[in-house]
Write a structure and sequence with these properties.
mainly alpha, three-stranded antiparallel sheet, 67% helix, 3 strands, 422 residues
Length: 422
C-alpha cells in the first residue's frame, strides 16, 4: 500500500492541479488524429516544464486519474468493463496500465466503506485486473512509472494524458442493479461453485471425450440443482406460495465481455445460454460486452456454462478448419468460422432449452410450488430488463454464408456436453 507524504508546497500543488486541469481540457476536446496527437505532445511538454515541479505534477496527475475513474463509476462502468474498453481502444500496454493504477488509487481513496457498498463482485474485478497501489508515493508516481515502463518522463506523461483522454470520452452506460437478498435465504455456496468450476476446467482440458462428457454432465447437474434449490429457498424465505407468489430477492445483472473476432456469433451463444438459465442477455457491441439480467444462482450458472461452451466451440472451430485445410479445401476463412459459431449457438439453444425443460419437469414432481415460483421469477427478470434497457432491437447476423461451416458447427454443438441422462 502506497503512502502519501508531504512534498510540494501547497501553492505548488494548487498550481499543478490547475495546469493539469487546463491540459486535460485541451486534450479531451481535441479531434482524433493529428490534432489529438499535437494536444498530447503539447500537454506533456507543458507539464514537464511546469514551474510547480515534477512532484506536484505527479500528484496532480494521479489525483486527476482518480477523479476520472470515479466519474466512470458514476457513469455506470465497473472495473472489468473499464479495463476491457481501454485495452480495446488503446491496444493495451502503458495506457491500460495507467487506468488500472488509477482504479487502485481510487479504491484506496474511497476506502473500506465504499468497497463493502460496491460488493464482492466489484472487489473481485479489481483483483482480476490486478489493481493494487504499488508506487511509493503519489508525488513520485510518474518517476516510478517511467522506470517500470522503461520510458522517459515525457513519454510516460504522454501515455497518462492519452489514457485520461480515453476515460473522459467514454459514454455513460446503464448502471447495474445489485441483488437484494431474500429474507431467510442463504448466500450462494462457494464450495459448490468451486466444484462446478473445477469440473468444467477438467472437461475442457481432457483429451478423452468420455471423460469430458462425464465431467461436464456432473457440472451441469450441479448447476441445474443449484439454480432450482436457490429459487425454492428464496421463495420459502419470502413466504412465496403457489397462489400468490411474492418475491423478496430481486434480479441483478452482470456484464460479460464479448471479445473479437466474431462478436455477433459469441453474443448469440451467450444469449442461448442465458435464455436456458432463465436470464435475459442484452448485447452492447459498441462497448464490447453483454449484460445478463437474472437471479444470482442463474447468473452464476449462465456465466460458467458460457465460458465453458465458448472454449469448446472455439476449439472445435479451429479443429474443423484445420481438417479442411489438410484436405486441400481451405475453409479457414472468416465466413467459415462465423457461420460455424452461429450454427453452434443455434443448435446449443435447442439442446439447452430441452435440457432445462427436462430438469424442471423432474424437479416439479417433488416440488409442486416450483412452477409458480419460476414463473414469478421470469416476470421479475423481464420487468428488470425492460427498466434497464427500454429500447432494444434485434440484431441481423452477417457472414452466415458457409454451408460447411454451418454443418460442422451444428455437429460440434451436438457433441458438446450439456446434461446427464441416466
Amino acid at each position: 500500500m502506497s503512502k502519501r507524504k508531504d512534498g510540494p508546497r501547497q501553492q505548488d500543488r494548487a498550481a499543478a492541479g490547475e495546469l493539469v486541469g487546463t491540459v486535460l481540457g485541451s486534450v479531451r476536446y481535441a479531434e482524433d488524429g493529428t490534432p489529438a496527437e499535437d494536444a498530447l505532445e503539447a500537454g506533456a511538454s507543458m507539464l514537464a516544464a511546469a514551474p510547480a515541479g515534477p512532484e506536484a505534477v505527479s500528484a496532480a496527475l494521479l489525483a486527476a486519474a482518480e477523479d476520472s475513474v470515479h466519474r466512470c463509476w458514476l457513469g455506470g462502468w465497473q472495473p472489468a468493463d473499464l479495463e476491457r474498453i481501454v485495452r480495446r481502444e488503446t491496444g493495451g500496454g502503458p495506457r491500460t496500465a495507467v487506468v488500472v493504477d488509477a482504479m487502485a488509487a481510487e479504491a484506496r481513496r474511497a476506502g473500506r466503506a465504499a468497497e463493502r457498498a460496491r460488493g464482492p463482485r466489484w472487489a473481485a474485478q479489481l483483483r482480476d485486473v490486478e489493481a493494487a497501489a504499488w508506487w511509493t508515493s503519489d508525488t513520485s508516481y510518474l518517476e516510478e512509472l517511467a522506470r517500470r515502463l522503461r520510458s522517459s518522463r515525457f513519454e510516460t506523461t504522454y501515455d497518462v494524458l492519452a489514457a485520461l483522454r480515453v476515460l473522459a470520452r467514454l459514454p455513460r452506460i446503464t448502471p447495474l442493479p445489485t441483488a437484494r437478498p431474500a429474507r431467510g435465504g442463504t448466500p450462494a455456496e462457494p464450495r459448490l461453485l468451486g466444484r462446478i468450476r473445477g469440473l468444467l476446467a477438467k472437461a475442457e482440458a481432457t483429451d478423452y471425450p468420455e471423460e469430458a462428457e462425464a465431467l461436464s454432465a456432473k457440472a451441469q447437474e450441479l448447476m441445474a440443482r443449484h439454480s432450482i434449490d436457490a429459487a425454492l429457498l428464496d421463495a420459502a424465505g419470502a413466504g412465496t406460495g403457489a397462489t400468490s407468489p411474492r418475491l423478496s430477492p430481486s434480479p441483478s445483472a452482470i456484464r460479460i465481455g464479448i471479445e473479437g473476432p466474431y462478436e455477433q456469433a459469441k453474443a448469440l451463444l451467450l444469449d442461448a445460454v442465458a435464455a436456458a438459465n432463465r436470464c435475459q442477455a442484452v448485447w452492447s457491441g459498441d462497448v464490447g460486452f453483454s449484460t445478463l439480467i437474472g437471479f444470482e444462482a442463474d447468473l452464476e450458472a449462465a456465466e460458467l456454462l458460457y465460458t465453458s461452451l465458448l472454449l469448446q466451440a472455439t476449439t472445435a472451430m479451429h479443429r474443423a478448419g484445420d481438417a479442411h485445410h489438410s484436405r486441400g479445401r481451405s475453409r479457414r476463412t472468416r465466413d467459415f468460422r462465423q457461420t460455424f459459431l452461429v450454427a453452434y449457438a443455434d443448435r446449443i439453444r435447442t439442446r439447452l432449452a430441452a435440457a432445462t425443460e427436462e430438469t424442471t419437469a423432474e424437479a416439479a414432481t417433488d416440488a409442486p410450488d416450483l412452477l409458480p415460483v419460476l414463473a414469478a421469477r421470469e416476470v421479475a427478470v423481464a420487468e428488470t430488463a425492460g427498466e434497464l434497457f427500454p429500447d432494444t432491437a434485434a440484431v441481423r447476423m452477417r457472414g452466415v454464408r458457409d454451408a460447411a461451416g454451418w454443418e460442422q458447427g451444428e455437429a460440434a454443438a451436438d457433441r458438446a456436453h450439456l446434461h446427464h441422462r441416466p
